[in-house]
Write the structure tokens for this entry.
Amino acid sequence: MKRHEPDWTSFIAGLTFCGIALAYLGGEITHRSLELRWVAPILLIGLGLAGLAGTLVRARRLSVRPDEKLSTPEAE
């Protein structure tokens, strides 16, 4: 099986959604409510971090490719 690079954007977005779901679940268990005014900013911050991580990873992949040889000036 061929190994692939992790998709950090999806990973962070998934963690954000799981965190919000766990907060709601914890609120149901402890009878405390998660205020709706906090959900949208948390979601947007998490998705923004996911987009930033994806952009940084993509930029790093484009700048350093392991399969490319470094070009060196030929000796004459």
Remarks:
- The chain has a mean pLDDT of 77.
- The first helix runs from residue 8 to 30.
